[in-house]
Amino acid sequence: QSALTQPASVSGSPGQSITISCIGSNSDLGAYSYVSWYQQHPGKAPKLLIYYVTYRPSGVSNRFSGSKSGNTASLTISGLQAEDEADYYCSSFTSSSTLVFGGGTKVTVL
Amino acid sequence: EVQLVESGGGLVKPGGSLRLSCAASGFTFSSYMMNWVRQAPGKGLEWISSIGGDDGFIYYADSVKGRLTVSRDNAKNSLYLQMNSLRAEDTAVYYCAKRLSTGTSLDYFDHWGQGTLVTVSS
User: Fold this and answer.
1) Fewer CB within 10 Å, N side or C side of chain B?
2) Per residue in B100-112, pLDDT tens?
């Protein structure tokens, strides 16, 4: 199972909105809504930001939102803040009964 | 408060074995699917295995099938990963993670441990 495709890096200025894409296939993103997004700061464990495409766990800022269309999922961060600088990973259930992550996107706040 | 604490990592020679443990607290351990995710140095996340609350569902990534074995002891609130025939490419931080809700789908992990580093090198 190949990793989902994410851009290596995305940047934006404080207050701006950015969107991270996650491209899969008909065997994962295109077939299931078990899509999630994680944030990981350097040296820390990942943190669940979004699950089931659009849902936010309790305590996660509403500046983070998710969506999906066909084989592509997206994470949008609005009102970008310095603390949002981190790596972001998407993940999806697959038709092989496995879980696949994206390669990760480094977000830089300019 | 949910806590997951991994242990057992270290330096091992290629072909060697290691057993990782994850001690869980703060939730009804037996009700949740537990998972192992690893991250090679400077690389992304890789899911490697999951086990249902009653051991009824066990899943492995192709990259580790036949070499790594996941298990759990609900009486001890502990998750394990037996790693055999280790290779250099198994070098990574290994995280245990709890599924968001009860059930057996492979989907979302809402609590993660701090990770334990496994280094495979001669």
Assistant:
1) N
2) 988 888 889 999 9
